[in-house]
Structure formats: C-alpha cells, structure tokens
Amino acid sequence: MTASAASVPAVSPALSIPDFVTHWQGHRALTRRVIEAFPDDQLFTFSLGGMRPFGAQATEIHLVDAMTVTAMRTGEWPEPDWASGPTDKAGLLAAWDEVSAELEQHGPHTDPAFFNQMHALPWGEMPGWVAAIYAVDNEIHHRAQGYVYLRALGTEPPAFYER
C-alpha cells in the first residue's frame, strides 16, 4: 500500500459498482475452478519453496473477501479469525459459494460513499475503493501461486483469461 494510493479518493468512477462486482465475480469464478482442479489430498498439503499450501492461501482469500463483502454491505470490518476456516475442498467451496452469493446479492447495491470513505482494516486505514481492489489483487496474487502448484502436480490449470 502506497501512501498516495491511500490518500487520494476516487473523483469519478472508472467502473460502475455493478461492473466492479461483475469483474470481481469473474475472478472469484476462476479461482473457484483453480480450487476444484486440485486433487483433494493436495489442496491443503502440497507446497513449494516454503510457501503455504494453496488451501491455506485460498482460505485467506475467502476470509479477506468475506470481510470486504461484509464491509461493503454494513460499513463494518469484522476481523476474521485467521486460524479458522475450511479444512477440506468441499468446505472451502461451500464457504466460497456463500461469499459469492452475498457479493452477488448485496455488492451492486453498495452505497457509493463507501468507496471514498476511509476505513480501518486490520492492516491499515484506506479508502473503501483501495480496500475493495486489494481484495481482488490479493486473490490474483494467490491464484497465481495456485497455478504454479497445479503445474508442479502435473495438472493443467484453468485458462487465466476465462473469467
């Protein structure tokens, strides 16, 4: 997070709120396919280079997204229990789908003021638009690690451009 990004509010939107939600849902659908592509016994165990297993990374994505979607709906940022979360593929996919449904239902109706207001998150204070984009960026970053893991396991990952 750069100081300038955190201190400059968006003057006019580049995307409508429904367009942003659609964009984010495309990323969520792709990441869901990456989760599905993992062998059940490797999702929470396989790692490379000292990185966390993809199941742990996907759980982080889920928790950040759930917190962000809640904030978009309520303005509150309840810090998740980072040590909790699903421990198997079926549980992760079910939790994933719950957040996607909440984003689909409530995301397009987010108060536009949310995006320019400053919010206190567990990792710092920032405008809502920066926090929302961070959730997408965090997902892309970890999904890329999942692609590397899948290739190392001999599994072809989903096409990154099919969102």
Automatic annotation (TrEMBL):
Q: Which SUPFAM superfamilies match?
A: DinB/YfiT-like putative metalloenzymes (SSF109854)
Which Pfam families does the UniProt record give?
DinB
The superkingdom of the source organism is: Bacteria
Keywords noted in UniProt: Metal-binding
Q: Name one GO molecular function term.
A: metal ion binding
| Protein name, entry field | DinB family protein
User: Which species is this UniProt entry from?
Assistant: Deinococcus grandis
What family does this belong to? Belongs to the DinB family.
Q: Which InterPro entries match?
A: DinB (IPR007837), DinB/YfiT-like (IPR034660)
